[in-house]
Amino acid sequence: MAIVAAINQPSTVESPRGSPDGQPAAIACQGVSRNFGGLRALVDVTFQISAGEILGILGPNGAGKTTLINVLSGLYPPSAGSVHIHGEDITTLSMSDRARHGLLRTFQNTRPSTELTGNEMLRLASLSPHASAGGRAYSARELLELFALTSYADTILSDLPYGVQKMINLAAVALCRPRVLLLDEPFQGVAESEIERLSAVIRHFAGTGVAIGLVEHNVKSVMRLCDRVMVLDSGRMIFEGKGADAIRDPNVQAAYLGKRFGGN
Ligand SMILES: Nc1ncnc2c1ncn2[C@@H]1O[C@H](COP(=O)(O)OP(=O)(O)OP(=O)(O)O)[C@@H](O)[C@H]1O
Ligand SMILES: [Mg+2]
């Protein structure tokens, strides 16, 4: 219950932007490029996320957002550049070794195993070797309460709405107490009425010091939730700064010309 109350509290992390104490960024991406044959999906992308910070990663369809998460999480090696977590070079590590370093991610289109209930899925996640990587793992019960999903605990996942499946999947990932959490379109498919709760949960994780990179098309939610945003277009980072400034930026406006920008 204490944890549920905690999501309504402001973040305990003093200054998520930058590293005033001289600590290395939670995750630092330096000069990362990724080619698919002749296609340059990412071109020389450099940015950092501090502990406790939520960075929104925006960009039109095909801009390279998922590719960035794939490269950061180790699904694809970069064609150039490096990735560090808390100062340690993880560029050549596998996905599971990165998870051991506390880097976890969710996928854009998630369909968790259909035969399990939410409770079973969370209990399964607690058996993961990564579950204790970042300290004491959450219990299934704590997470179901945090996400306000207790009433779905014993329902088979495939019988649940897609948005609820996605939230349980995020709960299973968060159970392991990641230090860096990369979310690929967490609000996509989630009912409008649930988005505020999900945002509060994400804010809660940031408040415990997790660095969060959040890819989203739902700009309204990104603006409310994120400390800072970056915008990709054709694999290049064309903007980094405050969300309100991104909307006014001529390069960002040009990138979105004729495309969806402004929320679902
Ligand atoms: N495995 C792959 N093989 C070949 N091309 C790929 C691969 N993955 C991504 N691409 C290409 O890289 C570019 C960036 O794709 P990516 O999926 O990263 O975009 P995105 O910003 O996540 O788009 P969306 O908002 O639609 O999810 C696209 O042109 C895509 O077709
Ligand atoms: Mg994508």
Distance between the termini: 32 Å
CATH class of the domain at 24-112 and 178-255: Alpha Beta
CATH architecture of the domain at 24-112 and 178-255: 3-Layer(aba) Sandwich
CATH superfamily of the domain at 24-112 and 178-255: P-loop containing nucleotide triphosphate hydrolases
Q: What pattern of helices and strands is seen along the backbone?
A: HEEEHEEHEHHHEHEHEEHH
Bound ligands, each once: adenosine-5'-triphosphate, magnesium ion
Q: Helix share of residues?
A: 25-40%
CATH topology group of the domain at 24-112 and 178-255:
Rossmann fold
Structural class: alpha/beta
If you average the pLDDT, what whole number results?
Answer: 86
So what's the overall shape? globular
Percentage of residues in strands: 15-25%
**How many helices?**
10
Q: Strand arrangement, largest sheet? A: 6-7-8-3-9-10
Rg calculated over all Cα atoms: 18 Å
Largest sheet: 6 strands, mixed
Any low-confidence stretches, pLDDT <50, length ≥5? 1-18
How many distinct beta strands? Answer: 10
Q: What descriptors fit this protein?
A:
264 residues, binds magnesium ion, 4-stranded antiparallel beta sheet, Rossmann fold, 10 helices, alpha/beta, 6-stranded mixed beta sheet, disordered N terminus, 32% helix
TL;DR of this structure?
The chain has 264 residues and is α/β, with parallel strands linked by helices.
Detailed description of the structure:
It is a single chain. The protein is an alpha/beta fold and 264 residues long. It has a domain at 24-112 and 178-255: Rossmann fold (3-Layer(aba) Sandwich). The protein is built from ten helices and ten strands. The chain has helices at 2-6, 65-73, 95-100, 118-126, 140-146, 162-174, 192-207, 219-225, 243-248, 250-255; strands spanning 27-36, 39-49, 54-58, 80-85, 88-89, 103-105, 180-184, 211-215, 228-233, 236-241. The strands form two sheets. The chain has a six-stranded mixed beta sheet with strand order 6-7-8-3-9-10, sandwiched between helices. Strands 2-1-4-5 form a four-stranded antiparallel beta sheet, with helices on one face. Strand 4 and strand 5 form a beta hairpin. Helix 4 (118-126) crosses helix 5 (140-146) and helix 4 (118-126) packs parallel to helix 6 (162-174). The longest helix is centred in the last third of the chain and has 16 residues, at 192-207. The chain is globular. The protein binds adenosine-5'-triphosphate (ATP) and magnesium ion. Magnesium ion (MG) binds at residues 65-66, 108.
